[in-house]
Structure formats: structure tokens, C-alpha cells
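Let's practice the habit of predicting before peeking. Look at the sequence and jot down your guess about where helices and strands might fall. Then scroll down.
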Amino acid sequence: MKIMVAFMGTLAGLAPVTAGAADAGKVDKSGVVVWIFLGLCALIVAAQVIPPLLRRLGLSRGKGKPGRDGKP
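Done guessing? Here is the structure:
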């Protein structure tokens, strides 16, 4: 019983701390230029990731064609 009372006292002591932390929300004041920049960064990352992914899956065009020296 003493453990339960101590636990409830601890929770009651922490309640104001968590309520104060929840009240201090972050306001996003990013402009359109920031979002365009982040979109450009995402396009660059996608352009770097897609070709190796297609090669891994075997979807590239030159897969079965022989090279210039006649070897596959």
C-alpha cells in the first residue's frame, strides 16, 4: 500500500511538469521558399536512389545486350 501511495505522489508531482511542456507547442513559421528548397532536396535524393534500385530489380534496358566486345 505504501508503494502505491508513493507512486501516486510521484505522478501527482510530475503532472504540472508535463502539462507545462505540452503547452509550449512549436509554431512552424517556414515560408514557401523553405518548402520549395526541401522539395528540391527530395527530388535530388530520389534521382540518386531510383537508378540503382531499378538496376537491382533488373529493370534496366541493357541487361541482356552484349557489350562492344561481344561479351554479354
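How did you do? DSSP finds two helices and no strands in the chain.
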